[in-house]
Write a structure and sequence with these properties.
Elements: E1 6-8, E2 15-17, H1 23-57, H2 64-81, H3 85-109
Antiparallel strand pairs: 1-2
Helix pairs in contact: 1-3, 2-3
Length: 115
């Protein structure tokens, strides 16, 4: 049977495609993705505020010890939550890379952050 085959819904006569059974899961994933995007945007807004402080105080943008601490914390959270530590480190690095780009833009160019 292929994924596009039709089957009877248990307890009723309604017929739906096999893909329809995924609809509630996909809906929940979309809700989570929206929340996640909002959290990432808020994190980057805070990073922009940090960049303004770094610029005002003459603090270097790159803080290697902070990068490692954030990556280690993400890996630990991953382990505690049953998510791959490697994936969580990679996620941390994606967030850090974007934060560094944003901070560079603010500190070096003095420009407002791009959206």
């Amino acid at each position: 049977m292929s994924i596009v085959d039709i089957y009877d819904v248990v307890g009723g006569n309604e017929r739906v495609s096999r893909m329809d059974v995924l609809r509630p899961y996909r809906s929940r994933i979309e809700e989570l993705d929206e929340a996640l995007a909002g959290i990432v945007a808020e994190r980057l807004r805070v990073c922009a505020e940090v960049a303004v402080v770094k610029k005002a105080e003459g603090i270097p943008m790159m803080q290697p010890q902070r990068v490692e601490a954030v990556c280690a914390a993400y890996a630990l959270r991953g382990r505690e939550l049953g998510v791959s530590e490697s994936f969580m480190r990679g996620l941390a690095m994606l967030l850090i890379d974007e934060a560094c780009r944003l901070e560079d833009e603010i500190i070096e160019a003095g420009a407002p952050p791009s959206r």
